[in-house]
Specification:
about 75% helix; about 0% strand; mainly alpha; Growth Hormone, Chain: A; about 475 residues; single chain
């Protein structure tokens, strides 16, 4: 007779790889659905505003939900929180499929589905990040975060291609059915693997005692944890300012390319494809290499390369190949910056409070996201573009030989200036030992199987103590280099 012993569920890196694989397939399928729905929305409305509104219906509920998601991730089972993301997205997709099937589909239903997707997404990242800290050894964090970056970059390359192939064959309802099937796959994989529970920790107990069950206080405790630690808040402010400066240039990249290429859609598409390929290559490199042993080197050097290539050189470019190469470089460096930073935070913040701390970190890092277009657009349209066209102005006399004087020259100047500002922010941050030596000054948390927390270095405090300098976080990722 065969053994009746229960089969052991996948654990550790095997569990992580199983979840990652199923989520990658699900995200790829969701990208196909999004591509198909974008085409339907444009054919139905013919309105760029109606299409752009989808971003608003995602971003606003995402940020609001993120504030509460962190405490809930720490209070509840991490596996359940990850499943919640897939369940929310699946409900929205099912509703859209039903509307198509029974013939009452309207654009507002895509907005409603997007809101559900945003609510689920707010739980996915802090839950998966916190669970990863418990599933893989510290030395593997760089590699697994490189794998995580592929979940962002890979679908950008392959989803439109696959959707273009499958849409004529399966139709939009068939593509939506495939998406639902991959949600079921992702949920089934979560049920099949073992996700360890975070052990008790002094910081976690302090959070519970200080909040007394109040979710608002508990969410606020995540911010307090970062602000009380100089190295963490220093790193986080670095990412905040780099995101702000880089975002200003990033908001102008598309209009600059269109203006300087005579609105050539093929050049724009080629530039974006180069960026997507660069992002995949960077993710693969980080997955194999694991990044610098000293994580802060990956953060600082990565941001410098991003500022120079995705800012200065991109702004100076006036043709396809400089734009494509610079875009590929900056997209390829993003996984190194984000992977290094994420690994640092996962190794330093105790696992049982990572939900609320990581959610607070993301909100701080992304606070500039809605601001940058409001700065970049008017500055380019009403100040720099007219100034570069005015041959009598001192500004044009100084910079026209460098950036040209035609359409897009003023935007090119601002893109380059934003890159220089990123390099300047890095230089200032490097002058503070608390930021430069953050990895040494912050003691390791006991998050990893078979490992214990390291003792605080001489001259630093333990939990809640005051290190001589700084502590922070953030990530260069979203939209070419947006911090978390």
């Amino acid at each position: 007779m065969g053994s009746t012993a229960p089969r052991r569920r996948p654990m550790g890196f095997a569990a992580f790889a199983s979840i990652w694989s199923s989520q990658l397939v699900s995200i790829l399928s969701s990208g196909m659905s999004g591509f198909a729905l974008t085409i339907w929305m444009y054919e139905r409305t013919g309105s760029a505003t109606a299409m752009a509104a989808t971003q608003v219906f995602f971003f606003v509920p995402f940020l609001v939900t993120t504030f509460f998601a962190g405490p809930l991730v720490d209070r509840c089972n991490r596996k359940l929180m990850m499943a919640l993301s897939d369940i929310c997205a699946a409900i929205g997709t099912l509703a859209v499929l039903a509307a198509f099937t029974f013939g009452f589909m309207e654009p507002w239903m895509i907005y409603a589905s997007t809101v559900l997707e945003a609510i689920g997404a707010a739980f996915q990242w802090p839950a998966f990040s916190a669970a990863t800290s418990l599933m893989v050894p510290k030395k593997q964090l760089g590699r697994v975060n490189g794998m995580m970056s592929l979940m962002d970059a890979g679908p950008g390359v392959f989803a439109p291609i696959l959707a273009g192939i499958l849409l004529p064959v399966l139709g939009i309802k068939g593509v939506l059915l495939v998406d639902i099937a991959t949600f079921i796959l992702a949920l089934g994989t979560l049920l099949a693997v073992e996700v360890p529970a975070a052990g008790g920790n002094a910081d976690g107990q302090v959070a519970k005692d200080s909040s007394r069950g109040n979710i608002f206080r508990e969410a606020g405790w995540g911010f307090a944890y970062i602000f009380e630690r100089p190295s963490l808040i220093g790193l986080q402010l670095l990412f905040l300012f780099c995101n702000l400066f880089f975002g200003i240039g990033g908001a102008l990249t598309t209009p600059m390319v269109l203006a300087r290429s005579g609105a050539d859609s093929m050049i724009l598409a080629g530039t974006r494809t180069a960026g997507a390929i660069g992002g995949v290559a960077g993710g693969l490199l980080m997955s194999v290499w694991g990044g610098f042993r000293k994580r802060t080197w990956g953060i600082f050097l990565g941001w410098v390369v991003a500022g120079l290539s995705g800012g200065v050189l991109l702004g100076l470019g006036r043709s396809f190949w400089p734009w494509a190469i610079c875009t590929a470089i900056v997209a390829g460096i993003v996984p190194i910056v984000n992977g290094s930073n994420q690994a640092l935070w996962q190794s330093k913040v105790p696992a049982d409070i990572q939900g609320k701390v990581f959610s607070a970190r993301r909100l701080i890092g992304w606070i500039s996201t809605p601001i940058t277009p409001l700065i970049a657009g008017p500055l380019a349209d009403f100040v720099l573009e007219p100034a570069m066209r005015d041959s009598t102005s001192a500004f044009a006399h100084t910079f026209a030989p460098i950036f040209g004087a035609g359409p897009g020259a003023g935007m090119g100047f601002l893109v380059a200036a934003s890159g220089l500002a990123v390099v300047g922010a890095i230089s200032v941050a490097w002058s503070f030992p608390a930021i430069r030596r953050a990895e040494e000054l912050i003691p390791d948390a006991a998050n990893f199987a078979g490992e214990s927390a390291s003792a605080p270095p001489v001259g630093t405090a333990g939990r809640g103590g005051r290190a001589p300098a700084c502590e922070a976080g953030g990530d260069a990722g979203k939209d070419a280099a947006a911090a978390e």
